[in-house]
Known about the structure:
By secondary structure, the chain is of the alpha/beta class. It has two domains: 4-267 and 476-488, Aldehyde Dehydrogenase, Chain A, domain 1 (3-Layer(aba) Sandwich), CATH 3.40.605.10; 272-461, Aldehyde Dehydrogenase, Chain A, domain 2 (3-Layer(aba) Sandwich). It contains 15 helices and 24 strands. The protein has a seven-stranded mixed beta sheet with strand order 14-17-18-13-12-20-21, sandwiched between helices. The protein starts with a helix and ends in a 5-residue tail after the last strand.
Amino acid sequence: MMSVSAQLVEEYFASGTLTGLPDKHFIGGSWVAPAQGGKIPTFDPGTGRAFHDFAAGTAEDVAQAVAVAKSAQRDWGRAKALDRGAILYRAAMLLRQEAARFAVVESLDSGKPLQEAEGDVAGAARTFEYYAGAADKMQGDTFPLGADYLGYSINEPVGVTAHIIPWNFPISTAARGIAPALAAGCTAIAKPAETTPLTMLMLAELLHRAGLPAGVCNAVTGTGQAAGAPLVSHPDVRHVTFTGSVPTGTGVMQAVAPNVTSLVLELGGKSPLIVLGDADLDQAVDGVIGAIYENAGQICSAGSRLIVDRRVHGALVERVAERARGLQIGHGLHRAMLGPLNSDAHLAKVAGFVEDARSRGLSIATGGATTTDPATGAGWFHEPTVIDAVPALDPIVQQEIFGPVLAVQVAEDEDHALDLANGTEFGLVAGIYTRDFDAAHRMARDIDAGQIYINEYFAGGIEVPFGGNRKSGFGREKGLVALQSYTRVKSVAARIASHG
Length: 500
């Protein structure tokens, strides 16, 4: 019998679309048509062709979503934590049951290989499961004020929260923000990226089917200017979680400032993957390939800079380049090893970085050109690229490319590798490959980044806090610490009258 995934893939390539895709906002527990009736096409990056239209939201739609979220806030915030957790757990189970459809839609909308989308959906389900277990474990404290006083604290939900979802990991990013917000008793409004709107809409509806009351989680689609901007600046939104570029993130900071709204920013990165001279090169090569070519390098925490000890530089770069050349390029639904970039505009941006590097005389060890799906001659693809021996201040090192482009930097020793690692304005993550326990943890201590991986890039899971320093943003998502963004502490101190 053909699997659900295979049936959906067959349906898409036979018809050019999928039946039942959402084309309206999800507000107040129902599908709601856009106030002004507008529609926006969403494209399949593997073919460059539009396959569906969705709602073009405006400030009117945002206002409606905020109003229903605000109305739902009181009851949801006062619901038993056990009941909130039970709903999140049912959502996790439903997401696992419907994982095949979610993964196919995620792959189709974003372009990423289906096997990667399947991993994202599984991770999203695990996220709801994790915060389901955390919901009834957020406890206050008591304060030692002496025998005549009682002092205690209460963790209260902050209120209505807004979630601006990026296009590179739509369902993953949505889950890691919305799940802790709901667990903490907040209501949520999500605005997915205009190039990847579908799985967020599907997720909002799934949460409602899992038992989430109407209005507690809403999804409004549209452009950043027409829908995102009025959402983050709305005075009834009390917290914003934003994932995206540094320029847009600074704009969000300015937008929320007049309302004194709290904010988590997960912005760009130019993360180093450091290979010291004693490292296991087989392990390191695997790490480098996954770190830069997963999702075609469209990952904020991608290991986009390989900092390698000069003693193993030549051997490592040769092996990485050979592996990169062997990556099969193709449509995401065909489970290719390297999928397309998310849009034609982004492809042009990535290609521009590489062409500028070539014009400066940098050595391109492999790749370096745009391409198409070999099976169809269509789509927005870029060859997996390695640029060798890049100077520390070159734009290829200093600027986020957000594509399958690896910059190689040569280090003379451990201290030099550390200087190179800290040599950009970003501080999101870093990877270290070495057999030397002391060296690994010295570097983990001294690298300015929010998360460090040792001998496995992307190690960890929802249990491990994630977020950046400097221009990579502030605040932490994932782990128990993420709940702090969605709660406020109320302290109570009471004098106890003496008896008699």
